[in-house]
Amino acid sequence: EAMVRIVDLLVDLLDLGQLGFVVKGKIHNGRAAFPAGDLLKLYYYGYLNRVRSSRRLEREARCNLEAIWLLRGRKPSYKTIADFRKDNPKAFVAAFKKLNALLRSENLFGKELIAVDGTKIRAQNAMKNNFNPKKVQRHLDHIEEKIQVYLQELDTADNDQEKAAVQNKIDTQNQRKQKYENIQNKLDAARDNHQNQISTTDPDARSLPKKMNIVEVSYNIQSAVDGKHHLVAHFDVTNENDTYALHPTAKAAMEDMEADTVTVLADKGYDTGSQLKDCQGDKIRAIVSPRQKNTSKKKKGFRKEDFKYDAQSDTYTCPAQKTLQTNGKEYTKNKGKHRKEYKVRVYKLPFETCNACPFKEDCAGNANLENSKGRPIERSEYDPYIEANRQRFKENRTLYKRRQAMV
Q1: What are the tens digits of pLDDT across the range 356-390?
Q2: Coil, strand or helix at 199
Q3: Is the pLDDT assigned to residue 343 strictly greater than 60?
């Protein structure tokens, strides 16, 4: 059977009014409105065939035999198609959940293995209309420099005509200055909500790294796909990167499938200690590709991985077989503006022991140990979960290879 017949059947099973779709045509004036069910069928048909544009969907309804059969010969315009999506954002999500409930009732979800990944979708907002504090301050500084230049020109102008021309330039710069000061005020308000940027055309969008240092104003679509038939179990539209998306996406998918526990596969963008901890707490077995640490700055010497941790004694053993101990205190750290705070313990040897070690230069690298207390090793509160994930990844490489084929 053609998939178009399944689309036709599934949409006919839905109560579109109950799901929240806007039903038009109740007032019988002018041309009859297109049924909401037909427009939803057209969108589902487009999704299945990778046709997203409303203009292309209009063409499919006029030229494609399957689409013509699906709509019973009706030919909606691109504006009608686009408005249907614009008018029913929550109803589309409700329809997705309803269809997933149907898939669940037919045992089409395996409920054992899911793959999570993010897809960057460029927003309708140019980079020049996306602002952060540094960018705004750069504009304000440039405007202030130009105003000072024009003020000097105003002092040396010979006649009223020249003075008027220079004054117009100053007024224009003051208007630009007011514009960026207003943006700065909005940024100050956004920082109260833990945001460090705003987009003026598409306010919900954010500047996100894509690949190879390319940054675009975009959205990040988080998808969780079940391993049995590669059906989408859950999705979410976010304006953040993948760092803190693993646990909420996997947990929502598990709840949508009504699973008690699940194994989740994800790439290294999701390798975040706090997320791995949260997954373990909610019976989510995470297998995430470990981040590769940049060791180019330390071409020789000992890395943290060369120090062996013993959980029973809470100590590290260095390559010289000396035992590093901690004072038991926890210190708060933060890796950057996009990272949350976390706790660490510090392990080290007495200075005399480190200074007498034959491996001192290899261990310390370029650091000078003469005024230090020995090389410190930090252990994060999330290190146990990171180490457990690395071990699971090593033991399940074959299973992990299924990730790309699934999502």
Answers
A1: 888 877 786 655 555 556 788 999 999 999 999 99
A2: strand
A3: yes
Neighbour tally for 118: CB within 10 Å = 23
Cα–Cα distance measured from residue 393 to residue 288, given in angstroms and rounded to the nearest whole number: 7
Pull the structure tokens for residue 341: 């705070």
Q: Which strand (E) or helix (H) includes residue 219? A: strand 214-226
pTM over 0.85: no
Residue 264 clears pLDDT 70, i.e. is over it: yes
> Any idea which of 15-29, 115-129, 164-178, 331-345 has the lowest mean pLDDT?
331-345
pLDDT digits (tens, 9 = 90+) for 47-94: 999 998 999 999 999 999 999 999 999 999 999 999 999 999 999 999
Please say whether the beta carbons of 116 and 246 come within 8 A. Answer: yes
Place of tokens 């909500």: 193
Q: Among candidates 206, 215, 222, 207, which has minimal Cα distance to 269? A: 222
Q: Tokens 């427009």 — which residue?
A: 39
Alpha-carbon gap, residue 161 to 158, rounded angstroms: 8
- Contact in structure between 218 and 210 (CB atoms under 8 Å): yes
- Are 285 and 392 a contacting pair, CB within 8 Å? yes
- Report the alpha-carbon distance of residue 382 to residue 353 in Å, rounded: 29
3-state secondary structure at position 149: helix
The one-letter amino acid code at 165 reads A
